[in-house]
Amino acid sequence: MKRVSLLVSAFAVAGLCPAAQGQAPSNADWPCVQRKVPVIAAGTVWSGPDLQKVGPWQSDADAAALAQRLASRRTRPEEVGPLIDEFLAKIGEHRAERLTRVFAGVLEIVNTERSRVIAGIERYARGQGKLAERIRKEADEVSAARDEPAVQLGKDLQDLETRFQWDKRIFEERAQALRSVCDTPVLLEHHLFEIARRIQERL
């Protein structure tokens, strides 16, 4: 019965590993339920002026400063509108052009942040894959040791079981944390969409 229990535990761990979930090779390191979207295209959230026709957003110091602040995850949704209105009260002319620069900056900053988060998730998943493989091997070692009467109650078996249980616990805790991290790219996308909506309302 204990041998069956060990195998069930090992298979359960493997099931949380992306490589065991039948994913395509190109997404072998993507462990999230959410679809992987490496880059948010401007056209998916923006219907305003062409971003390429307003010049580099970094060249407009005020627009760049606002873009940085709006793109920050610390900026709450209810702060977006007032920050844009404050910017508009200062700039005077060229409203549409400068607001478009603000959005261009926000888009680039958010995409850069999302890319970092996605790369981190994939590194995390590769680490989980290696740990899952180690746990499967440890389950086999514990099962084999239990079949040997000479060590059935010995320290070697106890050490193997302790290592197996510890690694399994670490894996499961990391898997729980990963589920929360997987929400981050989607939350950033929603944040970008809200900013785009508020800017376009004021064009």
Indicate the topology:
Elements: H1 2-15, H2 61-71, H3 77-91, H4 95-146, H5 155-181, H6 184-201
Helix pairs in contact: 1-4, 2-3, 2-4, 3-6, 4-5, 4-6
Main traits of this protein?
203 residues; mainly alpha; signal
Protein described:
The chain contains six helices and no strands. By secondary structure, it is an all-alpha fold. The chain has one domain (2-22, 58-201). Helix 3 runs parallel beside helix 6 and helix 4 (95-146) packs antiparallel against helix 5. The protein is rod-shaped and about 85 Å long. The model is unreliable at 1-8 and 19-26 (pLDDT under 50). Keywords: Signal. Residues 1-19 form the signal peptide.
Brief rundown of the structure:
This protein is mostly helical.
- Cα end-to-end separation: 69 Å
Largest sheet, strands/sense/barrel: none
Beta strand count: 0
Percent of sequence in beta strands: under 5%
Report the total helices: 6
